[in-house]
Amino acid sequence: MTLTVVRIDQNSPTGTVLDASTPMIRIDDEGYTRGDGVFETMLAVDGSIRKFDLHLTRLGNSARLLHLPNPSEDSWRSASALALESAGNGTPSSLGAEHTVKLLISRGTPEEGPYGLVVVSSVPEATIAQREEGVKALLLPRGHDPAEDTAYPWLLAGAKTLSYAVNMAVLRHVRSLGAQEAIFTASDRRILEAATSSVIMARQEGDRLRLFTPEPNRGILPGTTQGAIFQGAREAGWDVGFGPLYPTDLMESDGVWLTSSVRLLAPVTHLNNQELVLNPGLTGELMNFLRSR
Ligand code: PLP
Q: Which tens digits make up the pLDDT trace of 117-163?
């Protein structure tokens, strides 16, 4: 995969393009050795970054929780524009040419301190395919309730940190069982979030269809894609609601989707090997809420 990398630091607040084929991370970089840093992953379509404001707000919040300096909004915008200009072709899709744009702040080395990176790559075709093909998901315990972490700032609830080893381990686990995605549950079986996405569900209530998602402020990552879909739905006059949701809610729903910035939304075709209701028309309507955001 071709990567384009732009670095932001004190000497270069608007960003410098680095040669991605040469070493650029020092061995004592604490982003690398301790996962001590934060990131955002965004989608660019035809060179324009979707939901940039929402990502910058969440990055600022993550950086604050970790006491990391956050480059200014202008720095991120100019470095991202530079990275996209320098990047190769995006992956063609029905939306346009798609790139993944990752913003990252690392604690850096003890001598040099923190810095920011913008990393641009084309979106894998398999990721785009999941928007239509959907995914099989398994419910797995998170081990403890992340809502309990919200009282303790050092547990970094709601921060998008570089420490994603657990999220990757759970994906390897479900793949070994023939599924593609894991949906975490709390000790009381409440639905939380997927390994790298949020969960939304539709339920027909009388003559109205209502969208639901687990409460975003109870220790899970507040998803910008879920937020944008709910905003679009509200503006279109739909009802939206927040958890608690339990496995039976998903099993008996009128559709479940995993939402994230690059994949956008993937219908869940099977949950714990049980077939779920699929509604391609509704998937299209939810996708439309994201077109302008
Ligand atoms: N939850 C987790 C744990 C994630 O890692 C992500 C995205 O990476 C999301 C939810 C979805 O967030 P967004 O829609 O802002 O990409």
A: 999 999 999 999 999 999 999 999 998 899 999 999 999 999 999 99
Whole-number Å distance, alpha carbon 21 to ligand 1 midpoint, is 28
C-alpha 222 – ligand 1 centre gap (Å): 7
Judged against a pLDDT cut of 90, whether residue 115 lies above it is answered with yes
Q: Calculate how far, in angstroms, residue 224's C-alpha sits from the geometric centre of ligand 1.
A: 7
Distances from the Cα of 59 to the Cαs of 37, 53, 72, 157, 181, in angstroms? 10, 10, 11, 13, 25
What distances in angstroms separate CA 279 from CA 7, 138, 240, 243, one per listed residue?
43, 20, 18, 21
72-98 average pLDDT score: 97
Pocket test for ligand 1, best of 221, 286, 293 (most atoms within 8 A of CB): 221
The whole-number pLDDT of residue 292 equals 75
Region 243-270 average pLDDT: 97
Report d(CA 223, CA 261) in Å as an integer: 8
Cis peptide bond N-terminal to 13, omega within 30: no
Give the distance, in angstroms, between the CA of residue 158 and the centroid of all CA atoms in the same chain: 12
Enumerate the H helices of 95-193 as residue ranges.
125-133, 165-176
> What is the model's pTM?
0.96
Cβ-based neighbours of 85, under 8 Å, separated by 6 or more: 47
